[in-house]
Amino acid sequence: MINVLVPTDFSENAWNAIRYGIQFFAHEPAHFHLLHIDLFNREHRDTVANGILVAPQNTVTSSKRLEEILERIESDFPATRHQFHTKLRHSFFIEGIKQEVADHSIDFILMGTKGATGLKEVTVGSRTGEVIARVKCPILIVPEFARFEPISNIVLPTDFHSYYKNKILLTLVEIIEQHQPTLHILHLTDKEKAMSDEQLEHLNFLMDFLEDRSHAFHFCPKVPMEEGLAEFVEDNNVQLIAMVAKNINFFQRLLFKTSAEKVSYHTKIPFLVLHE
């Protein structure tokens, strides 16, 4: 069984991620670890009254809200084969995430965002961006308007400058085996320039690796990278965009410098962020 960590702040975006994840991982039973972190600060510290440890009021509320999520799951997904566990931690955010990943051998982290704006904000320091940058675990990011539909097409934008290590490829293979999609390798460049020997080596490696799996390579020279991904997603019925966390500058450029009229897919297409 796979282990999925779901940090939640009890927002509707977080609930949407849970709902999406239950369906995305429906091909095999999974353990979902629902985590809420009450951050360390002066107001949140436990106190002692008459020799009895008294939890802050927000701790009681958080525990109750975790129970309410379980009730909502049971109501909306009565036939699910997944198992759900709740955890309330008192820690700093990233330290808490890392500890849960280690304690439960987490395979995927599942997080919700508010689409393009939310993703842009998180890349400069808030929660999802911190997890992308600092936690070495695959992350499935679910925008606010994403609704699950069968995964028939996944796109992996690349400039072929990076060598994809086994961990990245094995994560992709796991998703491909679950959903049987076509994996589209999309090379975007705003310059018409021949590939270097290093790029060609990486291209040939991917060709060999994907030989027995449904895939396609697409080369879009002289197309602005930001526009090229938006157009490809729209034209090819893409349900999931895969990115490599190592290429965070490439990631940000593709996501956040796209013209406003073509940015809408960021609010409904999930991203799978891969780590080496």
Strand percent estimate: 15-25%
CATH architecture of the largest domain: 3-Layer(aba) Sandwich
Q: CATH superfamily name of the largest domain? A: HUPs
- Using DSSP, what is the number of strands? 12
The first-to-last residue Cα distance is: 22 Å
| SS summary, helix count | 9
Could you say what the CATH topology of the largest domain is called?
A: Rossmann fold
**Integer average pLDDT:** 83
Description:
- The chain is an alpha/beta fold and 276 residues long.
- The chain has two domains: 2-142, HUPs (Rossmann fold, 3-Layer(aba) Sandwich), CATH 3.40.50; 153-269, 3-Layer(aba) Sandwich (Rossmann fold), CATH 3.40.50.
- The protein has nine helices and twelve strands.
- The chain has helices at residues 12-24, 57-76, 93-103, 115-123, 127-134, 166-179, 197-209, 225-235, 248-256; strands at 2-7, 30-39, 47-49, 52-54, 83-91, 108-112, 139-142, 153-158, 182-188, 215-220, 240-244, 271-274.
- Strands 5-2-1-6-7-12-11-8-9-10 form a ten-stranded mixed sheet, sandwiched between helices. It has a two-stranded antiparallel sheet with strand order 3-4.
- β1 (2-7), α1 (12-24) and β2 (30-39) form a beta-alpha-beta unit.
- α4 packs across α5 (127-134).
- The longest helix is centred in the first third of the chain and has 20 residues, at 57-76.
- It is elongated.
- The protein starts with a strand and ends with a strand.
Provide a compact summary of the structure.
This protein has nine helices and twelve strands.
